[in-house]
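Exam review. A common question shows you a sequence with its structure tokens and asks you to describe the fold in words. Practice with the pair below. Do the first one on your own.
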Amino acid sequence: MGVVGCQANDHRPDAGPAPDFGALLNLPGSMPTVAARGQKPQPGPSPLDLGPADSGSRESRGARIRATVNDTAILDEEVVAAAFQQMMAPGMDEKAKAELLNKKLTEIIERELLLLDAAARLGKRQGFMDELKSVANKEFDKQWLYRLMKANNQTDPDVFKRFLQDQGMPVEMIRRQWVRNFIAMEYIRSRIEPSITKIGHLEVVEYFDKNPQEFQVEDSLVWQDIFILKARHGGDAAAARRFAESLVARIRKGEDFVKLAKEFDNGDSSLRENAEGIGRKKGEIKPVEAEPILFGLKEKEVGPLIENDAGFHIVRLMTRTLAGRMKLDDQVQKQIKDKLRGKVFDQEMKRIINDLKANAIIDIAREIK
């Protein structure tokens, strides 16, 4: 039995899906090495002297310290837990797994740097970190455990936890990773939020003006279609034409196109919302004979009948979007603002993490192979 996956969402209802913490902290070329720069705490005896790289079996890896960040140990089992679901992907060879584990190690190191900084900055606020941890644990149950149980048709938490344990996914280890990711993410957001809120209308307009290539639209249209099959009129093309022309007359007098399509259409447009025809841009319209006619119509105008061997198409142009630049409407403004905020978030997070690295002692036992 496999486990149906489930990603966590931000606990705030207006925030949308929370980005994967690991992906956010994947900074190119940032795998830490043993370092001693600037004013850093003096390390005690290194716990990383684990003997030769081949001295432990895979089974003993879970009890081994993989790295330390100042005086915080990162265990092999933490790294494996962080990578577990991705390692279950089919076709992943040993080299790819090793690369993934090293990537997750980098992400955990960067997360621990943020947690240490959060503790130093916020630890004096009575009960704040405990409260945040409590919220994170509740969100883990709601967003991860219970959603994963539901996806796998499980109702008993204890039974499901034992099942995950048997699958190599100890829930408490996963919980620990999830909670620490949650706290680190909330902390980094709180630090970056002031920079993000500075992005306003002037920045949006400036981006719109400087990047016109991003806001171009092609000539397109939305149209409706009713197909009248000659075979439904005894194969008599003239009779089918007369019937189609009668429908055109009714449409031009104001009868509802969609209602007539549902009643009389012999094609598949009546199965689509608003009896919409196939294709919106040049080269996409079907039947191809309809394209030049449609691009020559005015909005709401019904075109001449389009005949083919099988029957007649009745077409009407609904809306037309001319090629050119988008308007800076509310939707485009939101799109730009989200992009600018994401860019600032990434830049500020990289800056903060790199500053933290420059003032930390990070020891790694060895690269995972």
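Now try the second one, then compare your answer with the model answer below.
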Amino acid sequence: MALILYNTLTKKLETFAPHEGTTVGMYTCGPTVYSYVTIGNWRTYTLGDIVARTLSYNGFDVRYYMNITDVGHLTGDNEGDADTGEDRMEKAKKKEGKNAWEIAKFYTEDFKKGYQALNLTQPIAFLAATEHIPEQIALVERIEKNGLAYRINDGMYFDTVAYEARGYRYGELSNLDQIKAGARVEFNAEKRDPRDFALWKFSPTDGTVRDMEWPSPWGVGFPGWHIECSAMSMSVLGAQFDLHIGGEDLKSTHHPNEIAQSQGASDKAPFVRHWMHGAFLQIDGGRMGKSLGNAYTLHDLKSRGYSPLALRYFYFSGHYRNPLNFTWEGLDAATTALGRIRQSFAAHTTPDEQSDEENIVPDESYKDRFMSALNDDLNLPLALSVLHELLKDKTLSAAVIQKTALDFDRVLGLDLGAETKEEIPEVIQRLAQEREDARRTKDWSKSDELRAKITEAGYEVKDTDTGPVIHKI
């Protein structure tokens, strides 16, 4: 059964096939670690996880990497020019009273905890930009040697006109070839073309002290935002690889610039054969933004008693290429649905069939339907409906239903097996029941006090239509 995925580069659905054999080189653009990751960002990283799991489910050997941007991402990216503004790490250090290295360490560690909480596929490595400065400098040197870089007062820039003279088309993923200077920011008059972008930025000469800067053949400075992903992905996956994933906001500048500088350095095209981009997450029908106070994080969800896996399930309720509208009511529905799945799964545990577990195989009919949904450009809503139907099936044995559901969970990552194996201590169950009794009598103060005791003991409780569900934190 062929795996069909939408390729942003060609703008059509294609049968996915790796460049060599059954090994897939895959890279996902990760977070800029100047703040907590929002649930909008987490939707993109969950897409990377689902793609990796689906590839494995189809028998591919996945070599998966993700970057950590801890330098070089400037605030001008929000205004339409990623080469202007202040480094996000430098800006965060002023706000929090720490140095940029401490900022990067704190938010990287928080990201990795969230990554684990969402049960996302662990890449071979998280590639931090600050740990790959030599690779980035070497790549800029190759670009310069190929006649595609030039120097101006604030840094080294990529020459898009010279690149196009080599027969390449710049801006394949977007309409960058139509960009006009000064649309949203003041045009840098030193640039040869409005589309040119920074490869290496020079440190300020006005006395401003940066925490993160390095010597280079062109002067002390720091890498441009775009160069890091090219340098790091090529260092681990080669000059050409199979699959690159990111949010749809990266189609406009970041990914087209990655393509240009990578192909300009290697003289090999295509840099990546298949590109995938996830759509935005909306909040209550509108955009998400820190200024709007709705850029929710996993910490916000946890403070309201929601499990990260409920958010994971919520993401599956929409197709990755379509905007998904987040509401608290929607997350409540996801929590309830996930609770029912877990309870139904656990109800199919039958002691008399456990002894013959090694001889039990997933039901082929359901498995074919599940894979058919996955391989149709990751139709997760349909895949979930197959799981729900399986758990209600009265014609299959309990053991076969569990075995098939666990097979599906290799992709869904809802930790169904872990849920049944996790033993909740009796004292925690008693506290949860006492809290449920307090809620029934509307003793909210006691209910909150008991929730705090449960949390302090390392567990979380979520209220569902079918009763409280307890998980280990």
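Model answer, second protein: Residues 177-185 have pLDDT under 50 and may be disordered. The domain at 282-422 is CATH 1.20.120.1910 (Four Helix Bundle (Hemerythrin (Met), subunit A)). Full marks require stating both points clearly.
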